[in-house]
Write a structure and sequence with these properties.
Number of strands: 4
Strand content: 25-35%
Distance between the termini: 27 Å
Low-confidence stretches: none
Strand order of the largest sheet: 2-3-1-4
Radius of gyration: 13 Å
Structural class: alpha+beta
Shape: globular
Number of helices: 2
Mean pLDDT: 94
Order of helices and strands: EHEEHE
Helix content: 25-40%
Length: 86
């Protein structure tokens, strides 16, 4: 089963862009997971178990490296076309 997730990171850090860019860069290290980022959020899509494992690992790594941060996620069962726009 596929899973599509929209995720936004809100670091409790004055220089908030560095943790966000770091997090997005880490998501790119997963070759089986598609990622698209826009001005407001990042969307990822892939195998359900792989996406959930990636998020677990990378959100924990972000908290360890950067301290407090809020992650806001929307989970959609199934695969969405991340390139779609209107």
């Amino acid at each position: 089963m596929k899973l599509t997730v929209e995720i936004s990171m809100y670091p409790f850090n004055e220089n908030y862009l560095d943790p966000i860019k770091w997090f997005i860069g880490r998501l790119d290290s997963y070759p089986n997971i598609e990622r698209v980022t826009n001005a407001m959020a990042t969307q990822v899509c892939g195998d359900y178990q792989e996406v959930m494992a990636m998020l677990t690992s990378e959100m924990q790594a972000a908290h360890v490296k950067w301290g407090k941060a809020v992650f806001v996620c929307k989970f959609i069962g199934g695969e969405l076309n991340l390139a779609h726009s209107e």
